[in-house]
Amino acid sequence: MRSTHVIHRHLHQLPPVAVAGDGVWITDAQGHRYLDASGGAAVSCLGHGHPDVIAAMHAQIDKLAYAHTSFFTTEVAEELADRLVATGPEGTSHVYFVSGGSEAVEAALKMARQYFVETGQPERTHFIARRQSYHGNTLGALAVGGNAWRREPFAPILVEATHVSPCYPYREQLQDETPEQYGQRLANELETAIERVGRNKVIAFVAETVGGATAGVLVPVPGYFKAVREVCDRHGVLLILDEVMCGMGRTGTLHACEQEEIAPDLLVVAKGLGGGYQPIGAVLAQRRIVEAMTAGSGFFQHGHTYLGHPVACAASLAVQKVIERDGLLAKVRERGTQLVQVLHETFDGHEHIGDIRGRGLFWGVELVRDRATKTPFDPAHKLHARIKREAMARGLMVYPMGGTVDGRYGDHVLLAPPFVASEDDLAIVAERLHGAIQAAVPHS
Ligand code: PLP
User: Fold this and answer.
1) C-alpha span between 224 and 205 (Å, rounded)
2) What local confidence, expressed as pLDDT, does residue 199 receive?
3) Given 3-state DSSP classes, what are the helix, strand and coil percentages for the chain, each rounded to the nearest 5?
4) Distance from the CA of 178 to the center of ligand 1, in angstroms?
5) What are the distances in angstroms from CA 390 to CA 166, 208, 386?
6) Which strand ranges, in their side-by-side order, compose the sheet holding 399-402?
7) Is 364 exposed, middle or buried (0-12, 13-18, 19+ CB in 10 A)?
8) What CATH code is assigned to 53-325?
9) Nearest residue by C-alpha to atom 1 in ligand 1
10) Is the fold of 18-49+327-440 the same as that of 53-325?
11) What is 69-122 written as a DSSP string?
């Protein structure tokens, strides 16, 4: 093994050295090329090396690389906020810029808490979220996150949160239940949880609009989020939607919640906001939240050194302008239809593919040992890790993960190709993924 001073994700493995990126491809130091079918972790919505984004970053660096937000604002931060408010869910009035998804979730949690402090309800101290969710790795985000494996070592130092069921129809919708009835049952479960925690005790319900990394793209059933919104409103509980992974065009609309026909109180975005060109995340806040802070203490009691970083805002602004100029949301919907078609053609008869689910260019493939019983593979086999290795060996980047079912059992592969992928690229993805899965599944 090459020597390294970097704490890599795995301390017994060294990843290949990435040296170049163009379009949907990343090239390593050995000259191997990898088709980036997951956009890293659903980040690279414009692929790599987009000339407009790079030019915008150069221009900003030449003008002003950094100015601390306790002294100045910048034109790019203002312009990006104007754009996000204009295109945000109804009622959005302001944006808070941070450097990534976890930071954005932390900011949303604190803003929600401060809203109740400002409005005379300091007894609201509790968050409710869902099992099998992922909201980031900082302590607050990890506390609301519902992935058992990620939480376990840190559980004793996490703030208390209650977790209710995810919306996971493949495994948890009952046979005699319609999708609508299932969604209503889940909303009832949330209401029961709010009542159990106590009257006026809950700050917010936190959920990914389309569940992402930890359960492999969980698409909400029709009516679920409308019912959730009603429950939250009935109990004065804020709704925080985490669209770090599923937002900013990934599901075919700029925000995933548009398709649910609801607006959250706080919307959290990152990843596709900057497309990986710079680290950036944001909280889109409803007017009443900001008005409460304005009328109360007059500030949001939070802050980081790199809030609203001008180069990050410039990159993000360029990414968002390209998406609009090139009609990429329509492209996501068109390519999404092609992707699901090729996935079904490739995997429908496959004995180990239990479910194919998703929206736009955001798809999950859940693997099972037995399709009839939906029994997952033995976690000791580490199927997800094997698939990733086999895919890389075939020049393909996908985002597989284990623990799909309950944090321990289950495996899935997440696909989130760049919005600029061609139909031919998608065919290569399906073919190489098929090869990787064939090589990775245990043959008894
Ligand atoms: N929320 C969701 C839904 C995510 O998928 C992620 C990252 O995968 C995060 C939050 C955390 O974002 P970051 O890794 O940028 O801190």
Assistant:
1) 14
2) 87
3) 40, 20, 40
4) 31
5) 30, 29, 6
6) 353-359, 362-367, 411-415, 399-402
7) buried
8) 3.40.640.10
9) 135
10) no
11) TTT---HHHHHHHHHHHHHSSTTEEEEEEESSHHHHHHHHHHHHHHHHHHTT-T
> pTM above the 0.85 mark?
yes
Answer yes or no: is the C-beta of 362 below 6 A from any ligand 1 atom.
no
Closest CA to 388 of 377, 400, 404, 403: 400
Atom of ligand 1 nearest to the CA of 281: 15
Tokens of 161: 């949160």
What is d(CA 175, CA 172) in angstroms, rounded to the nearest whole number? Answer: 9
**CA-closest candidate to residue 35, choices 407, 433, 434:** 433
- Ligand 1 atom, smallest distance to 270 CA: 15
With CA atoms as reference, report the closest residue to 137 among 129, 128, 147: 147
Ligand 1 centroid to Cα of residue 246, in Å, is 10
**Cβ(87)–Cβ(321) under 8 Å?**
no
> In the beta sheet, which residues pair with residue 396?
35
Per-residue model confidence (pLDDT) at position 74 = 98
- Spans of the chain, pLDDT less than 50: none
Distance from the alpha carbon of residue 234 to the mean position of ligand 1, in angstroms: 29
User: Of all atoms in ligand 1, which is nearest to the CA of residue 133?
Assistant: 3
Q: Is the CB of 135 under 6 A from ligand 1?
A: yes
Q: Give the SS3 label for residue 246.
A: coil
Q: What is the rounded distance in angstroms from the CA atom of residue 367 to the CA atom of residue 371?
A: 9
User: What's the CA gap between 237 and 204, in Å, rounded?
Assistant: 5
What's the pLDDT tens digit per position in 81-134? 999 999 999 999 999 999 999 999 999 999 999 999 999 999 999 999 999 999
* Ligand 1 touching residue 225 (CB < 6 A): no
Inter-helix orientation angle 310-325/328-347, to 10°: 80
Distance 101 CA to ligand 1 centre (A): 4
100 CB under 6 A from ligand 1? Answer: yes
Residue 394 in contact with residue 435, Cβ under 8 Å?
yes
Strands (DSSP E) contained in 254-343 are 266-269, 281-286
Cβ atoms < 10 Å from Cβ of 248: 29
Which CATH architecture fits 18-49+327-440?
Alpha-Beta Complex (3.90)
Q: Show me where the domains of the chain are located.
A: 18-49+327-440, 53-325
